[in-house]
Specification:
The complex is a heterodimer of chains A (180) and B (362). Chain A has 180 residues and is mainly α. Helix content of chain A is 89%, strand content 0%. Chain A has helices spanning 2-31, 37-58, 63-87, 90-125, 130-176. With 362 residues, chain B is α/β, with parallel strands linked by helices. Chain B has helices at 6-35, 95-101, 123-142, 155-165, 188-192, 200-207, 212-222, 226-237, 241-254, 262-274, 277-280, 312-321, 343-357, and strands at residues 47-53, 56-61, 73-76, 81-82, 88-90, 93-94, 106-110, 147-152, 171-177, 257-258, 284-285, 288-289, 298-304, 327-332. In chain B, the strands form four sheets. In chain B, strands 1-2-7-3-8-9-13-14 form an eight-stranded mixed sheet, sandwiched between helices. In chain B, strands 4-10 form a two-stranded antiparallel ribbon. Chain B has a two-stranded antiparallel ribbon with strand order 5-6. In chain B, strand 11 and strand 12 (288-289) form a beta hairpin. In chain B, helix 3 crosses helix 4 (155-165). Chain B is globular, with a radius of gyration of 22 Å. Classes of the chains: A mainly alpha (180), B alpha/beta (362).
């Protein structure tokens, strides 16, 4: 069936793209020096030990939970700062760009096929396609713009008439002059 | 071994009792939040639809107090990305409600939710087409002769472009809240979207526009630990009903991403992020050059210290290029959202903006 074979093709394409994506990541990671993970975890552990040793000397108290929360917050902040530094590098930006490129190369044809299949399905059901609805919407926008232009012209004409009327009234008042 | 006296023991016992009670409340609220993580009732400040153009809507908020400021305010939010419900989360936590109570005649421009049919929308259409008509309709509806433009995030550079292209327009005041102007200092986004790394044409040609899911992924990547921190804080404060209500309202907004039209995104990334043409005076909209030095009205720029979407340097840049004599820059604690929602915003940012606008709105 053509539907089965196209879905198999899509699955094969997806598998291939996943493999290519993994290969691309591995090759990028291979080119950059691997971070020392202990540098990443050490500040978190060190910061955590200080409140824990305080807790041990003070004995049990609900302050335990406050201090635990502070420990977690500091750990999350340490992570966040480390990640931010890593993501601000050109290396990360380049790797991310390549990954996005790969993703678009994979998703692009799939997206196109799905769109075609969707349009065909809508056609079979006798429903308007997205393109037809988009066309209708743009026609409505065009009509709206024309109405706005007409409104603007009418306002100009009304403003002109108001100015003429004001001038006529002023002239009439001046002609009548002071009443005797 | 620590020696305890009776008083300390009583105090400790009381604190444990409180903590246990809180823990019980946490469990109860945890169930509620898991079943209903979002609040449907956001954007509750009463308003009326004044005008619509395409997907864009102009809303006027009904007066809660006597209007004491003659110059109405038009809020211009970001286009796409997220809904403007962040400005009106819930009663008591709403920037719009606050401004209306301060006596401002408040209008909001809602750009709308975009679909495939909107992929032809450009920055020119927004600045040269939609904004002018909205300002005109606002002045007609309010009977005022001048308006204050309050741009938030992306809305700020769009508003600045409008004022720069039309120095004769009736804009009395321009407020930039967390809006990027100098994109060289726009943080991680300017690094990632550099033309060496991002092929924006390919992205837009693949999808037609920028899907909401892709936008969500981009913003999550900006701060990968944000969700961890959010849910840790949620667990910690689950006993607090008020906190839970605020969380649910914010969660509703935070999960409602909006696609960006394709042509708009191409221009936004190409001209603003990659080319940094706005600050350089090389941006052309509607066939005319956008020269920020043409802005002569009163200008306020508000930046946030730890804003990683629009860092302070890129917001403050507006002050350095406008020719206004009355111009000011505030930098407040917090991040991008903390200027517009939350307890800190209501205590610091909102009064700062309202206090600056008030005397200039007579």
């Amino acid at each position: 069936m053509s539907t089965t074979s196209s879905s198999e093709e899509m699955l094969a394409q997806w598998k291939e793209s996943m493999q290519r994506g993994i290969d691309a990541w591995l090759s990028v990671l291979g080119r950059i020096p691997q971070p020392d993970i202990s540098q990443f975890w050490m500040p978190f552990l060190t910061q955590g030990m200080v409140p824990f040793s305080q807790m041990a000397s003070q004995g049990g108290s609900p302050e335990l939970l406050q201090q635990w929360k502070r420990c977690v917050d500091q750990g999350i902040e340490a992570w966040s700062n480390a990640l931010e530094k890593a993501m601000a590098t050109e290396t990360f930006a380049s790797a991310f760009g390549k990954y996005l490129d790969q993703y678009l190369d994979t998703v692009g044809p799939m997206h196109k096929e799905m769109k075609k299949a969707g349009e065909a399905y809508l056609k079979v059901l006798g429903l308007p396609s997205r393109a037809q609805i988009a066309e209708m919407t743009s026609q409505m926008s065009w009509v709206e713009s024309r109405i706005e232009e007409l409104e603007a012209k009418i306002e100009q004409v009304l403003a002109g008439l108001a100015a003429v009327q004001a001038a006529l009234e002023k002239g009439a008042t001046e002609n009548r002059g002071p009443s005797s | 071994m620590v020696q305890w006296d009776a008083g300390a023991q009583q105090d400790l016992l009381k604190r444990w009792q409180e903590e246990i009670a809180r823990h019980g409340k946490r469990m109860a609220n945890a169930m509620e939040v898991s079943l209903r993580p979002s609040e449907n009732q956001v954007g509750q400040t009463p308003r009326d639809l004044i005008y619509r153009k395409g997907k864009a809507r102009l809303y006027r908020y009904r007066r809660a107090a006597e209007v004491v400021h003659a110059v109405p305010v038009l809020m211009v939010p970001n286009l796409g990305i997220s809904r403007p419900t962040i400005f009106d989360l819930q009663p008591g936590n709403s920037f719009i409600e606050y401004m209306v109570k301060q006596g401002f005649d408040f209008f909001l421009l809602d750009w709308g939710i975009f679909g495939e049919e909107d992929n032809g929308l450009t920055v020119d259409d927004c600045v040269v087409g939609i904004l002018p008509i909205m300002v005109k309709k606002l002045l007609q509806a309010s009977g005022a002769s001048a308006v204050s433009l309050l741009g938030y995030c992306m809305g700020a550079p769009l508003s600045a472009c409008y004022v720069a292209l039309r120095p004769e327009s009736p804009v009395r005041n321009l407020v930039n809240m967390a809006g990027p102007i100098d994109f060289e200092h726009a943080g991680l986004f300017s690094t990632w979207m550099n033309q060496r790394h991002l092929d924006v044409d390919k992205l837009v040609d693949t999808f037609g526009g920028v899907p909401a899911d892709l936008i969500r992924a981009g913003f999550k990547l900006l701060k990968p630990t944000a969700d961890l921190s959010t849910y840790t804080n949620l667990w910690w404060n689950l006993w607090n009903d008020r906190y839970v209500r605020s969380f649910k309202a914010l969660n509703t907004w935070a999960n409602a991403y909006v696609p960006i039209p394709g042509c708009f995104f191409k221009q936004w990334v190409g001209d603003f992020y990659q080319g940094n043409k706005l600050i350089a005076g090389e941006l052309y909209l509607g066939g005319r050059r956008v020269d920020l030095s043409q802005i002569a009205c009163s200008v306020l720029a508000v930046g946030a210290e730890t804003d990683f979407i629009a860092p302070p340097a890129c917001v403050k840049a507006l002050i350095d290029v406008v020719s206004s004599r009355d111009k000011e820059y505030f930098e407040l604690h917090g991040g991008h959202i903390s200027l517009i929602a939350g307890r800190q915003a209501s205590k610091v940012a909102w009064p700062a903006v309202s206090g600056w606008l008030g005397p200039r709105s007579q």
